[in-house]
Amino acid sequence: MRILTIEDDKRLSRTLESHLCRIGHEVKTAYLLRDGLETAGTWQPDLILLDFHLPDQNDLTSIKPLLEAVPHCHLVLITGDPDNTLVMDAIHRGAHDYMRKPLDLDDIDRVVGQVSRQLETARKDAVKIPPGIEIDRHEIVGSHPDIVELHKRIALLSKSRVTVLIQGESGTGKELAARILHRESCPEHPFIPINCSAIVPTLLESELFGHEKGSYTGAYTRKIGKLEYAGEGTVFLDEISDMPLDLQAKMLRVLQEGEFVRVGGLKPIPLRARIVSATNTDLKKRIGEGRFRKDLYFRLAISHLQLPPLRERQEDMPFLVGYLLARISHKLGHQVHAVEKEVLEKFNQHFWPGNIRELENILTNGIALTHRNLLTLEDLDFTHWKSPASHPASVSDFSLACAEKNHISLVLENSRWNILKTAKQLQICPNTLRKKISSYYLKPSRREKDSH
Rounded to whole angstroms, how far apart are CA atoms 193 and 182? Predict the structure, then answer.
């Protein structure tokens, strides 16, 4: 490991250099900050031991230029000052650790050994950002067959203006998929998201269609609705299942006629925007309960995008963690670029009810609280996680439809997707089984595809 000591006490510097070289490290010494900065920039050390009191610098402002010169370096402050506020400030500025004078060789060995182990773990277990991905724009990353198929469908759908229904559990990235579809088809036009469950039903109609002055109490001016403002862009209707029934009827007419009227208005306005909707509920079940219009469903679902839950694509976990680490670190201004092996093992044991959003939240919290560039189990908060036994083994919720879907999928996998054998075991006819496979968008796993 390369270690740079910046210490004006020449006797202490020689002692440090002698001891660190003896235990197998490369060491360079500087007595002034300006010399240390020059050496750090050209030599790129793994660890800097920095004295707080230097002839040309006597405060913590020296930390920032050193870490800018060597972004992935560990910096340890050496101080004789007993003030703990100073130590907290140093860590806040990016210091990895601190040592108090007079230095003890055991203390030096502890700190150097800790940094050395972290560097070794990072080299061995680091998960890198996927090549070709820009961290400043959000992507759906992964190599799972469902993710590959999703990108193919988005590419094909970007060439047309058909309505699209995006389905998937909460936190799987439905709005992100809609934004990518918009970016690939009409990036020069607005993307307008509307959460149908977050707006009071009485205001949702005005939000969508706009209103004329005086159309109702409080309508003091004309308002342009989101459908009109979007122009030739995309209107994303999130949580479409929560749209009130009376508004569903009006939305159906908009899609059928390709035009709408402001509340209180008379003049039809052409609909030029693409409508993309999303839900994490079973719309067919809602239709059966009389809570969603069947005719609107078929208008919204001319084409589908299905996002898989995180627990079904765990081979993507290293890929996802690497991408999220890079993006979150960039956003927070940290330099965390790896997780230890035990973290990935812990992640692979979790059920992930919150999917990608839950993964992003736990990594963000860990990165915000660590002062290292490697995330360990100690950095992450698992207190809110339930034990694996508390989650259903094969269903994501307790709905009858979800239980049926998962049971059919399980029997199909066990029979290696033999339709006749599966239908016999389920005590249904093969045609009914095929309809259910189509209805639930079931597909063979990668293993089954490879075996055929």
Answer: 11
Please give the structure tokens belonging to residue 137: 């724009």
Asked if 374 and 335 touch (Cβ cutoff 8 Å), the reply is no
Residue among 134, 99, 138 nearest 115 (CA): 99
Q: Would you state the structure tokens that stand for residue 372, as one six-digit string? A: 């290292």
CA distance linking residue 124 with residue 374, whole number of Å: 12
What does 384-412 look like in DSSP terms, one character per residue?
A: TPPPGGGS-SS-SSS-HHHHHHHHHHHHH
Give the span between the Cα atoms of 39 and 45, in whole angstroms. Answer: 9
446, pLDDT greater than 70: no
Task: Give dist(CA 216, CA 317) in Å, integer.
Answer: 52
Tell me the mean pLDDT in the region 6-28. 91
Per-residue three-class SS string for 81-136 = CCCHHHHHHHHHCCCCEEEECCCCHHHHHHHHHHHHHHHHHHHHHCCCCCCCCCCC
| C-beta atoms surrounding 431 within 10 Å | 10
Name, in order, each residue with C-beta under 8 angstroms of 41's C-beta and a sequence gap of 6 or more.
69, 70
Distance in angstroms (rounded) separating the CA atoms of residues 440 and 294: 17
Q: What is the pTM of this model?
A: 0.65
Q: Write b or e for each residue in 44-74: b if 16 or more Cβ atoms lie within 10 A of its Cβ, otherwise e.
A: ebbbbbbbbebeebeebebbeebbebbeebb
- Over the stretch 213-262, which tens digit does the pLDDT of each residue have? 888 877 889 899 999 999 999 999 999 999 999 999 999 999 999 999 99
Tokens 């799972």, located at residue: 144
Residues pairing with 30 in the sheet: 6
Contact assessment for residue 20 and residue 32, using Cβ atoms and an 8 Å cutoff? no
The span from the CA of 46 to the CA of 29, in Å, is 14
List the one residue out of 302, 295, 294 whose CA is nearest residue 277. Answer: 302
Residue 133 is encoded by which pair of tokens? 């991905």
Residues 12 and 108 sit within 8 Å (Cβ to Cβ): no
Angle, CA 161 vertex, CA 251 and CA 246 arms, to 5°: 5
Read off φ and ψ for residue 169, nearest 5 degrees.
Answer: -65, 165
Please say whether the beta carbons of 340 and 121 come within 8 A: yes
Name which of 191, 166, 180 is nearest 301 in CA terms.
166
